[in-house]
Design brief:
Largest sheet: 6 strands, parallel
CATH architecture: 3-Layer(aba) Sandwich
CATH superfamily: P-loop containing nucleotide triphosphate hydrolases
CATH topology: Rossmann fold
Order of helices and strands: EHEHEHEHHEHE
Number of strands: 6
Number of domains: 1
Helix content: 25-40%
Number of helices: 6
Strand content: 15-25%
CATH class: Alpha Beta
C-alpha cells in the first residue's frame, strides 16, 4: 500500500479511544492558536464541555471575546501578561503561569471533555514552568480529558507522550517585510 498524502501507514486494529488523547501543536509558523480555536468550536458544537486556558497572553487577544461568549466553552486567563523582554521573566510571569496551570488542573479534576492550553509550551521555553509540570498535566489528562497544547516548541518527551503532534512551519511572513501585527489577523 502506498502512503500517498499520509506520512505513515495505519498499524493495528481500529479502536474507539474515547476522550483523553494528547494533542501538541507547535512550531514557528502561524496557525497554532487558530487550530486550537477550530477544535474548541467543533467540540463545543458537539456538546462537549471545553475549557480554554490562556498561557503567556493577557486575555485581550481577539479570540478571547468570542470564546468567552460561546456555549460549552469556559475561557480562563489569569490576567495581564506583559511581554517577557531580554531581562527575563518577572514575578508576574511566574504567577500567571502557575495560576493558568492551576486552572488547567482544575478543569481536568472537574471533568472537562476538552482542555485547550494555548501557549503552554512557551512557558517551558521562557522557564516560567518546568517541562515536568507539563508532563504531569499530560498524565492527569490521559484517558480523561482531551488535552490540546500549543506553543513555539515541544521537547522530545512532550512529543513522545502525545498522541497528535503537528508542527507548523513558517515559509514566509509579512513581519519580515516590515509589517506590524494586525488586530483580528495576527492577534
Amino acid at each position: 500500500m502506498t502512503r500517498g498524502y499520509y506520512s505513515e501507514n495505519r498499524r493495528g486494529m481500529l479502536q474507539q479511544p474515547g476522550m483523553g488523547l494528547i494533542h501538541v501543536a507547535f512550531g514557528q509558523g502561524v496557525g497554532k492558536t487558530s487550530r486550537c480555536i477550530g477544535l474548541a468550536v467543533r467540540a463545543a458544537g458537539a456538546g462537549l464541555k471545553v475549557v480554554w486556558v490562556q498561557f503567556m497572553k493577557g486575555g485581550d487577544a481577539s479570540e478571547a471575546t468570542v470564546l468567552s461568549g460561546m456555549d460549552n466553552i469556559t475561557f480562563k486567563c489569569p490576567g495581564k501578561h506583559p511581554f517577557i523582554l531580554s531581562r527575563g521573566p518577572q514575578s508576574i510571569h511566574y504567577e500567571h503561569a502557575e495560576t493558568a496551570l492551576w486552572y488547567a488542573k482544575e478543569a481536568v479534576k472537574n471533568g472537562a471533555d476538552v482542555l485547550i492550553c494555548d501557549e503552554i509550551l512557551n512557558t517551558v521555553i521562557f522557564k516560567v514552568l518546568q517541562e515536568d509540570q507539563i508532563l504531569e498535566l499530560m498524565e492527569r489528562s490521559r484517558r480523561r480529558t482531551e488535552l490540546v497544547m500549543s506553543g513555539a516548541d515541544a521537547g522530545p518527551r512532550i512529543r513522545a507522550g502525545a498522541d497528535y503532534v503537528t508542527e507548523f512551519v513558517q515559509k514566509k511572513h509579512p513581519y519580515y517585510q516590515g509589517y506590524i501585527a494586525r488586530k483580528g489577523i495576527e492577534y
